[in-house]
Design a protein that fits this description.
By secondary structure, the protein is mainly alpha-helical. The protein contains 8 helices and no strands. The chain has 2 domains: 30 residues, no CATH class; 159 residues, Up-down Bundle (Ferritin). 77% of the residues lie in helices and 0% in strands. It binds fe (ii) ion (FE2) (2 copies).
């Protein structure tokens, strides 16, 4: 109790920067993650945020075509990617390591049709899967069992992400010449509920 009061008095007389310097190294100076893992996790964090940004652009593209169902599906997808980024952000901090937020690239916006969007989505998810697998491989190589365990959720999630994108793409291919078919699929995808 006495120590706590004394610490408060000291804090009130010194700047926060100087106070942080007084915290023992073993509390705030030690990085728990291997540097390579920390870098790779930050890269994955950026990729998840880029995914969110890309899907948000796709949602806006669908809105511009009055496909509200596709737009809503993509908006929810964008929010999910933000959730993935938050999981990694929290894990880096929990591991007493450094979050490094890098620049997020502008969305590509080269798609012109619903089919083009889902082709790009499927391709993008394959890229994300490859990145997660690299990261999981790195965790095994460096004997980082905690990170390996943490990444297991992402490995499983990517199976679902790829399957969902491919399923929609295949359905679009089936109906792409039918305006009624595309409108029906738009209505169906609009039923997707928020998962967060
Ligand atoms: Fe993701
Ligand atoms: Fe994803």
């Amino acid at each position: 109790m006495i120590n706590f009061v004394a610490a408060n008095i000291i804090v009130s007389y010194i700047s926060i920067e100087n106070y942080i310097k007084t915290i023992p190294k073993n509390i705030k100076g030690e990085i728990m993650l291997n540097e390579k893992i920390q870098k790779a996790l930050n890269h994955q964090l950026n990729l998840e945020l880029s995914s969110s940004y890309e899907y948000l652009a796709m949602s806006a593209f669908f809105e511009s075509l009055n496909f509200s169902g596709f737009a809503s599906w993509m908006r929810i997808q964008s929010q999910e990617e933000n959730g993935h980024a938050a999981k990694i952000y929290d894990y880096i901090l929990l591991s007493n390591s450094k979050v490094e937020l890098a620049q997020i690239n502008a969305p590509s916006l080269v798609y012109k049709t619903p089919k083009g969007v889902f082709e790009a989505t499927y391709k993008h998810e394959q890229k994300v899967t490859a990145s997660i697998h690299n990261l999981a491989g790195l965790a095994i190589d460096t004997k980082d069992y905690a990170t390996g365990n943490f990444l297991q959720w992402f490995v499983n999630e990517q199976v679902e992400e790829e399957a969902n994108a491919l399923k929609i793409l295949e359905r679009i291919k089936m109906i792409e010449d039918s305006k009624g078919g595309v409108l029906y699929l738009d209505k169906e995808l609009g039923k997707r509920a928020k998962s967060v």
